């Protein structure tokens, strides 16, 4: 995808009609044409497979919660690294990532709040031109919904209800309230709800609040359904439970003329490690006419209870409460129907299914399922989808945006203080209209919103201000060109030649990669590689002694001696064999010894580790005694080809899983060096280039460091939010070591470790 075209392309090269040994070049038009093939699922498959594994089950929320608690305890204790300076945010702030909800302050001019998928809450005081972080860095960064009272009291529901797609979606820890417009936040309950889809405040009694909790995406049961408080969050009551243990509430609306009339959509769904079920008999639209004492499932032409009913959305017209709208996807994510009612939901008319309406939801209607109604014009509506849809006649006809703004729409907010000012939130940030949201009008994008989700980061060794990285839904970007995108698709592996930073490399999903000799101003495709399968994030690395030599990992290892212009396979299938997925059972990490270029280590996503000491002529498996989990990183000591570190991802239920191992004899034996690390996925391990005894790991709960070979670990530096760190890069500038972190939700951070102690 380009910046404006962001759907995940979750197919392999074969799905493009190309031979298995051909890698797609940087043909943006081709990427755009193929973008809807599998919808926003590739990244989610990649994240989930790492964290659970294909044969494991478990409660990711409980496991990640325990890991966060461990990390917080480590951060609060005495640390031998307490003298380290604070992490500094490097942005980018000019792009903007996924926005899940928006509200406009009704009592303070030009003030807008944005809920983001994994980057907290952001606040604008200049009518959406720029935003500043307005959340607590020490708590979950996943926000699913936000609401505001007439006096400016904010309520945020944590945990993204969108069930994993264009990126991984993360769980939350309940509802939080701010009485000082985002300066501070306090938890007010529903900690077990996991994911929250909507918060609605009664305009006649603002202590009465409704929360639609979709519940745990992976594990049945727990707190889910529709909840109500009548005392501003001091106490909560579940007023509608699901028909079964996998049904929660995803959307809720109040009749503004009669707040005892409540409309709520229930959603029966569950995500498993190897599959998803995004519909079921519990899904449907329900109504209460007595404030929530009882509910009735609405019928007429609405879909009856059945296994094919998926996520639904509902909206009430503020200026005409008789008029309602509903939308539904089926269990696989395809468009199921759109309805309107003119008698408060007693009967419904199904709107004729047009190609614009149907195609707007693509094959993943569960990523959207919202409707927004103009507060002063009851027939003027917006329906989020891949594009935004607009109708001025209650769905009789539709207008679709073309390229005015980024795709994958999620939120709409009308400014109650300024007529015709409307804000849209999508996977590319926030856009403002002064023409009542007209899709044929002009739009202004915010110029500062730093909720970017980075998979990888690369740093120039000649000029540390030159940074590139791969972004979920926003391509590969480069700091030396105002963080502009220089390669399309979901941005994944990025590399900068350590000897010449004009030579840069970038990949999109499933190993479609490009190369440049002019800093990314122009790109050409990699030469053909040989592989049967390629991962969502296909690893590409340099030989540390000669960056013209490169390695590319599908399920076979490919080697280039011409800076990626041509490739030769130097291995057979190093995975455990195909499981039927085009992007699993692949190489996940590659490491080349600096002191012995013929020595190459390879790890796979299905738990195998191999070594060759003759540039691929023969291979020896060396990880059979290690956990058979996703190998996230292999790192070779620059002075010793036999000293290797291995990191792993993957929770196991109730097991204090090991994450980091070390071998000093090239894999003959391994020692666990996880020490006191939190029980969380370890995504990367790097060595201080000036002090090989200083290790740094990026985990789902921050960055940690050790100088005693992993016996003990401490948080690295201070001030890094509790956010997943996907990748680390090192550089030396002026004799000082810099650690650069790619976070999945808050952009790039950097820690100045300083000069080595002599």
TrEMBL record:
Entry keywords, A to Z: Repeat, Signal
InterPro entries: Sortilin_N, WD40/YVTN_repeat-like_dom_sf, Xyloglucanase_GH74
Signal peptide residues on this chain, from the entry's feature table: 1-15
Residue ranges occupied by any Sortilin N-terminal domain in the UniProt entry: 175-298, 557-674
Listed Gene3D superfamilies: YVTN repeat-like/Quinoprotein amine dehydrogenase
Protein name: WD40/YVTN/BNR-like repeat-containing protein
């Amino acid at each position: 995808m380009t910046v404006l075209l962001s759907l995940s392309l979750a197919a392999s090269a074969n799905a493009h009609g190309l031979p298995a040994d051909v890698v797609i070049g940087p043909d943006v038009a081709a990427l755009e044409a193929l973008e809807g093939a599998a919808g926003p699922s590739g990244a989610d498959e990649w994240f989930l497979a790492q964290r659970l594994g294909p044969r494991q089950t478990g409660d990711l929320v409980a496991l990640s919660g325990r890991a966060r608690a461990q990390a917080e305890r480590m951060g609060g204790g005495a640390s031998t690294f307490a003298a380290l300076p604070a992490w500094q945010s490097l942005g980018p702030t000019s792009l903007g990532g996924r926005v899940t909800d928006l509200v406009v302050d009704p009592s303070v001019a030009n003030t807008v709040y944005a809920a983001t998928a994994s980057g907290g809450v952001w606040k604008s005081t200049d009518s959406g031109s720029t935003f500043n972080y307005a959340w607590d860095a020490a708590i979950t960064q996943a926000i699913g919904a936000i609401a505001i009272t007439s006096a400016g009291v904010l309520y945020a529901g944590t945990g993204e209800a969108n069930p994993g797609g264009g990126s991984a979606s993360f769980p939350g820890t309940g509802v939080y309230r701010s009485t000082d417009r985002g300066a501070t936040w306090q938890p007010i309950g529903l900690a077990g709800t996991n994911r929250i889809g909507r918060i609605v405040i009664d305009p006649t009694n603002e202590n009465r609040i409704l929360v639609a909790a979709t519940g745990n995406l992976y594990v049945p049961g727990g707190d889910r359904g529709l909840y109500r408080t009548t005392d501003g969050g001091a106490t909560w009551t579940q007023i509608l439970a699901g028909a079964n243990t996998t049904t929660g509430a995803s959307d809720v609306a109040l009749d503004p003329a009669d707040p005892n009339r409540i409309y709520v959509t229930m959603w029966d769904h569950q995500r498993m490690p190897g599959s998803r079920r995004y519909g079921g008999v519990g899904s449907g639209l329900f109504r209460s006419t007595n404030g929530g004492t009882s509910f009735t499932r609405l019928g007429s032409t609405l879909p009856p209870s059945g296994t094919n009913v998926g996520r639904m959305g509902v909206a009430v017209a503020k200026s005409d409460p008789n008029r309602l709208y509903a939308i539904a996807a089926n269990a696989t994510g395809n468009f199921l129907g759109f309805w309107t009612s003119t008698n408060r939901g007693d009967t419904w008319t199904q709107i004729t299914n047009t190609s614009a309406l149907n195609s707007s939801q693509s094959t993943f209607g569960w990523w959207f399922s919202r409707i927004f109604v103009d507060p002063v014009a009851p027939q003027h509506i917006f329906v989020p989808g891949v594009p935004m849809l607009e109708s001025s006649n209650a769905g009789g006809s539709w207008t679709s945006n073309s390229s005015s703004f980024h795709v994958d729409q999620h939120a709409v907010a009308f400014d109650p203080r300024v007529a015709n000012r409307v804000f849209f939130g999508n996977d590319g940030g926030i856009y403002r209209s002064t023409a009542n949201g007209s899709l044929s009008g002009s739009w202004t994008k915010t110029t500062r919103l730093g909720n970017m989700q980075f998979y990888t980061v690369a740093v120039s060794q000649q000029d540390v201000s030159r940074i590139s990285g791969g972004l979920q839904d926003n391509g590969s970007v480069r700091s030396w060109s105002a963080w502009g995108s220089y390669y399309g698709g979901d941005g994944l592996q990025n590399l900068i030649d350590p000897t010449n930073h004009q030579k840069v490399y970038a990949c999109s999903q499933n190993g479609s990669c490009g190369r440049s000799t002019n800093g990314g101003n122009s790109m050409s495709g990699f030469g053909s590689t040989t592989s049967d399968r390629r991962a969502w994030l296909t690893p590409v690395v340099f030989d540390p002694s000669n960056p013209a030599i490169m390695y590319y990992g599908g399920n076979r290892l490919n080697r280039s001696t011409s800076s990626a212009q041509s490739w030769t396979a130097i291995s057979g299938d190093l995975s455990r064999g195909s499981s039927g997925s085009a992007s699993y059972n692949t190489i996940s990490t590659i490491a080349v010894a600096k002191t012995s270029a013929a020595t190459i280590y390879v790890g796979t996503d299905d738990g195998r580790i191999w070594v060759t000491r003759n540039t691929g002529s023969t291979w020896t498996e060396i990880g059979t005694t290690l956990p058979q989990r996703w190998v996230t990183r292999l790192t070779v000591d620059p002075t010793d080809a036999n000293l290797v570190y291995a990191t792993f991802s993957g929770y196991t239920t109730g097991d204090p899983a090991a994450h980091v191992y070390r071998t000093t004899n090239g894999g003959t034996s391994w020692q666990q060096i996880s020490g006191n690390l939190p029980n969380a996925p370890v995504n990367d391990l790097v060595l201080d280039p000036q002090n090989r005894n200083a290790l740094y790991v990026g985990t789902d709960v921050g960055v940690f460091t050790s100088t005693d070979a992993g016996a003990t670990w401490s948080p690295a530096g201070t001030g890094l939010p509790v956010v997943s760190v996907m990748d680390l890069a090192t550089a030396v500038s002026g004799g000082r070591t810099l650690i650069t972190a790619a976070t999945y939700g808050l952009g790039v951070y950097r820690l100045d470790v300083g000069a080595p102690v002599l």
